[in-house]
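pinned: reference chain
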Amino acid sequence: MKIRLKLTLLFAGLFAILLLSFTMAIYFTSASQREADYFKRLRQLAITKTNLLLDAGVPTATLELIYQHSLNTLPQEEVAIFDTAFQLLYHDVGKIDKVQETRGMLDSIITQGEIHFHYEDLQVTGFLYTHGGKSYVITSAARDEDGLARLTTLRWELGSGFVVAIGLTLLAGIFFARKALQPVSSMVDKVADISESHMNLRLNEGNGKDEIATLALTFNRMLDRLEQSFEAQKQFVSNISHELRTPLAAIIAEAEVSALKIRNPEEYRDILQHILTAARKLSRLSGDLLDLAKAGYDPAKISFKELRVDEVLLDARQIILNANPGWQVDLLFEKEIEEGDGITISGNEYLLRVAFLNLIENACKFSADTHCRITIKFEESSTILRFHDKGIGISARDIENIFAPFFRGENKRYASGNGIGLSLTKRIIALHHGTIAVTSRQGEGSTFTIKL
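pinned: its structure tokens
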């Protein structure tokens, strides 16, 4: 069932319940009021007859004749007057007695003072009446034909009005549901046109204030992220292809050249050295790509544990020095470590070590003295690491793209690389809810600052 139909039926159902409740309240209130008014009329009519009989001394036969020909006589009217000894003093129609008063009925009237009940299609009231110091028991019965006819008319009018109102409500519900959901239908049609080849299409955000506009805005933002992701993926694949093509081409070329003729051992050694250099570049690239993939995992799927930042940093320093004995890496603590300092964090040791390795390697690689100085500052709720070098620096134009995957700036001629390290480092720091920033001046050096 479509939402449009559901909304229409729900709206019509709620309205029907409210309208039916209101209609029934009107009908039953009117019926109750009619009945109460008619009982009052029966009582007043009986009192009038009793006064005529007792005050004016009108004979019962004459009184009966008068009311039989009166225009105000009620349909099937019966008035009976008894004394407290159950002696009948007057009855409208002596031969026709529908109520058939009994001693028990009269006793109930004397006890309760007044009773109301229905007998077949008649309303009957019985009450105790005092006149001239004596008490009389009076019963009065009649059929309210006019009132019942009006009640029947009211019932028909309310029923017809209910049916018409529900019909109009259904039509109005269909119209307004269609109008209210028209933006959704438009969104569905628009979304159907969006594909990997038309990622630039966006939904109409309307007035930007209602829920539909909020949905469209949220969806457009999601499309923006998807488009950026697709573009990054395309760029990523393109860059990988380019990075892989160069060392592979070098390996193939060296192998083909060596196969052209028999060479002396020295020449074979040179060829193998070139192939080894290209293979190492491929190995480094594949390792970096693997780390980049790990850093792109869902954080919920990455193992985090409590670890000391300084220990991870010392491990990274030792790895760099073991691989490059001529390099120099200094660690400086800005103050003594005290209890409560933010030295321990929740993180992934492997990924953090990769991030630190990249920053240390870059600092040494682009410095003439292959020297990196790391300062560590522990605060109450954070750890700040600064990686300094006195290298060639980074131009202002390159700093804007320094963390983009596969980006290599003007300084690529000074050292080899594949442009993944800094991008990978930024992802790792983001996974640990940290920040990384860089300041640099060409010819003076650079400083990368991490806050965890």
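why pinned: The first helix runs from residue 3 to 54. The chain has three domains: 3-150, 211-293, 301-451.
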